[in-house]
């Protein structure tokens, strides 16, 4: 039950939302545009990026409704909004309707994507949390293949109908999933939480369920209520968790994945080997599948730190070599190693998908205490949405100023920062309960007892 594939279907439906603009861009620019008007490049940039502004609103709605309807309710609502967004895109005959559809898609993404890790971490046993959280990413990789492989060949309306099928499948299948036992205990529904755990654990053993139920109740008992951002910042554990997750997400944002995905063919054309845009995109998406599959097998065996370190190191080396090739090709004859751009990009997408691509989202669900998870998720999600919006809207022009080799070296440098981060800053959460993770965070502060005193004083304040 814990390996239900519904999460993967949701991941696919939200990823095709984000990637939909790539195969649609040439059609929307054409005179026979499906919306009845050829868009300008500036208008296209809004179509591609406005989804992240919608995600900001979705992040806010997540905070408002998470405690009211729980993670499962949020995920169902996000799936429903995704269906609505495809309806708007399918019926769009003007830029304004197209933008409304993209904003609604962003709201759905902003609500559901951060909530996936929250729900998964709350329903999963500590021994398989990382493996379970890798399933949506693995299935989501097939979404990349679909949108890049089939998108250029399907008609506008046909592609939208196909994309809308994914959230419909998710709503039907996920409706039968149990609610989070943590949410049910917080609502005082112990009997419902017990039934939920029976389904999640796949057992009717009273002792096994009671042990897990006591672990959930113990975690809830250590909570100090729902806190505001300012109240949360008074807690040492929250400040440290926020810093760790913040750094992890910055490495993900600036490791170059979004940029290199957009400029893949340009980089491939820098060598004498040239692939069609469609084939290059499919190749790029395909390499994520074995990497994520391997990650799912290793993440709970070797831990988050080791995987993040290897992922960052491999991706960094590949990008430095890629930048070196691009820099030297105008100086010396590199015909004998013309395969290098393809090889380096292949290694890059493999290594980045091994850990950096999805581990930051797992950290959101694991590092924040239950009482601060909502605030922490909101802060990180809003920051990421704003940065990625600006990234997509402006970064294309920077390549002309910096040069492609400088871009690759910059991204490679960020990946090497990920190596240092994993070795010096990232705590190991593999196989630990939420209480154990919080205890470990407390023990690394200057005075662990002072942290508990802060919690006690905060309770009195509240």
Automatic annotation (TrEMBL):
Residues 451-462 have a biased composition (Basic and acidic residues). This is Major facilitator superfamily (MFS) profile domain-containing protein. One of its GO terms (molecular function) is transmembrane transporter activity. PANTHER family: GH07001P-RELATED (PTHR48021:SF1), PTHR48021. It is a multi-pass membrane protein. Keywords: Cell membrane, Membrane, Sugar transport, Transmembrane, Transmembrane helix, Transport. Its main location: membrane. GO terms for cellular component: plasma membrane. It is found in: Cell membrane. Residues 442-462 are annotated as: Disordered. Residues 1-430 form the Major facilitator superfamily (MFS) profile domain. The chain crosses the membrane at residues 45-66, 73-92, 98-120, 132-150, 156-177, 242-267, 279-299, 306-327, 339-363, 375-392, 404-426.
